[in-house]
Specification:
This protein is 85% helix and 0% strand. It has helices spanning 2-67, 75-96, 102-127, 130-133, 136-170, 175-182.
Length: 190
């Protein structure tokens, strides 16, 4: 009887070991899938933000084309915006493939801040040019840019929330162990 008891005891330990291994396996799959879903949410949020950044760039091009010939003394303002826009577009392209990667997102954050500062400078200049703002085309472009900026700010907030959720999940124990194993890194907000 004692031989049968040892065999049953060994079988119980083997079953318990298999259950623990299965539990760990399914937990790992679930944690991996959760991190991937959260990282994909960052990509989705970036797609929306990227569209608004593209729209902002196109509207800025139109505004520059309409205003620059009329204010030749403000060429430095126009050059600053054009330069900031080129940097912003390059940073968008670099971030598009992996918007959760910290380096391209950091470059985009800096480029976007420079672009926003240059655009604010141009809009401030136009606010002091009543004769230009009274023209329907320029007024419509300024209003379009302001609308795009509000939409971009909202999309940026959605992106930053997606990044925060991903980073929070990434830093939870024991998911952190799995994240290191599979090479998940913290994302950077804008």
């Amino acid at each position: 009887m004692t031989g049968g008891f040892h065999w049953l005891n060994w079988l119980n330990w083997q079953t318990a070991g298999l259950l623990v291994a299965a539990l760990l396996f399914f937990w790992g799959v679930g944690a991996y899938n959760r991190l991937m879903a959260l990282r994909n949410a960052i990509g989705d949020a970036f797609a929306q933000l990227g569209g608004h950044l593209k729209d902002r760039g196109e509207a800025c091009d139109k505004l520059l084309a309409a205003v620059a010939p009329r204010l030749p003394s403000e060429q430095a303002t126009f050059d600053a915006l054009a330069s900031a826009q080129a940097e912003s577009q390059a940073a968008i392209q670099a971030s598009r493939a992996k918007p959760w990667a910290p380096d391209p997102a950091g470059s985009l954050a800096v480029a976007s801040a420079l672009h926003t500062a240059a655009l604010t400078r141009l809009l401030s200049l136009l606010d002091h040019q009543a004769e230009l703002r009274s023209e329907a085309e320029i007024d419509a472009l300024v209003n379009e840019l302001k609308l795009i900026e509000r939409q971009r700010a909202f999309a940026r907030q959605v992106f930053n929330q997606a990044v925060a959720q991903y980073n929070e999940a990434l830093n939870q124990f024991p998911t952190r162990v799995l994240a290191n194993l599979y090479g998940f890194k913290e994302a950077r907000s804008l």
